[in-house]
Amino acid sequence: MTQAHPRGTPRIPAEVREAWLAKVAADAARQSGTPAELLGAYLDLVADAALTGRTPDRSELAAVRELGRQAAASGVAAHRMAHLYLTAAARLWSTIPQRVRTRGRDAVSAAAEAVLVVVDGAVAALVEGHESERRRLIRNEESVRRQFIDDLLRGDSDVASLVQRSEPFGLDFGLGHQVALAVPNGRLADHVAVASALERSIADAYDGREVLVDAREGRFVVVAPEVDDDARHAGRPDVGAAVQAALGDVRKGVRWRIAAGRAHPGAYGVARSYEEAREALDLAEILQIDAPMVYAHDLLVYRVLVRDQAAISDLVQAVLSPLTTARGGAGPLLDTLQTYFETGGVATEAARRLHVSVRTVTYRLAKVAELTGRNPTHPGDRLALEVAVLGARLLQWPQRQLPSTE
């Protein structure tokens, strides 16, 4: 709201006023370490309040709000802008020309009150504009970051674009990178907070080298530089071990399943490692691997089997389908075969793990030999049976039907 010019208020020549405000702006900028240009017309508003009691209208406050946006876009912090504006107001008030100060007490008091109203409104508008722009920048940064990670994990064909866009994230595609996936056993309410804490913890483990952490589809994706032999000997963990240690600190009491792909060079290497980690997670679930940490390189044989489902389905059908005719079905016989192979062919250990007698184990093994024509205790027959059992687990047979091979 604009107030009338009080009667008896001394007028200041335009050139004197201009020089005065320029001096105030320069002093405030120097003291606050912030460019004077970001004051805009603010000092004119404060001077009008001090000299005439006039308060700014909406359009003038909108201009100050725009200055806040410009400051945020230029990377000037909000506290620095507030320092600049408060310093400028204090400097202006302390340097008001002498003939203006000689007005009566009531006039000076009214002028001081008007200045406070202007400063309060202007700083509020300034901060509002700054916060609005910062929120927009953060949303844009998050969008750019998410799109980059999506393209990186997908293996975008535009390698030149990926390399260029990777610079703000500190990724050096001249190095190998490894991807780890972490899945909590249950829901987390604060995925963003966990991802941020995880990123900080893993960056510390890598001596500040850039890592990327993203939460998607209930999983946490971690992209980290490859750990070479020298770093490994020096005690630096690979990405899987680093994630496992970090999650133990970030969310204690939560059970996690973690899978790590192998390290591969180049931009495409990240997508390749990510795919390996995804397959390792899926295989760990299918195979009911209890270990909290699995590595893709330990599951290569399973990946080979999964890739040729037609062949493995044929093998399961040919070797194991006769087990379905046994009393109780194929399930108990398959469990016995699997445990027997896992224990290195030791019937007593297999019986202990299965919580049955040794006699039951030997009976079941004999039944397998009778139905399939292959004796699991003979080395020549064992290979076909063991691979077929692995294939059955991967295909989740007999719980699920075997895929058609036609």
What is the structure about, briefly put?
With 406 residues, this protein is of the alpha+beta class. The chain is 61% helix and 8% strand.
List keywords for this structure.
406 residues, 3 domains, six-stranded mixed sheet, Alpha-Beta Plaits, Arc Repressor Mutant, subunit A, single chain, disordered N terminus, alpha+beta
Estimate the helix proportion, in percent.
55-70%
Reading off the top of the CATH hierarchy, the class of the largest domain is best stated as Alpha Beta
Query: What is the succession of H and E elements?
Result: HHHHHHHEHEEHHEEHEHHHHHH
CATH topology of the largest domain: Alpha-Beta Plaits
User: What is the CATH superfamily of the largest domain?
Assistant: Reverse transcriptase/Diguanylate cyclase domain
Which second-level CATH architecture of the largest domain applies?
2-Layer Sandwich
Q: Gap between N and C termini, in Å?
A: 83 Å
Q: Kindly state the mean pLDDT as a whole number?
A: 85
Largest sheet: 6 strands, mixed
Shape: rod-shaped
Oligomeric nature of the chains? single chain
Rg estimate, integer Å: 36 Å
Q: Would you tell me the structural class of the helices and strands?
A: alpha+beta
Q: Uncertain spans, ≥5 residues at pLDDT below 50? A: 1-8
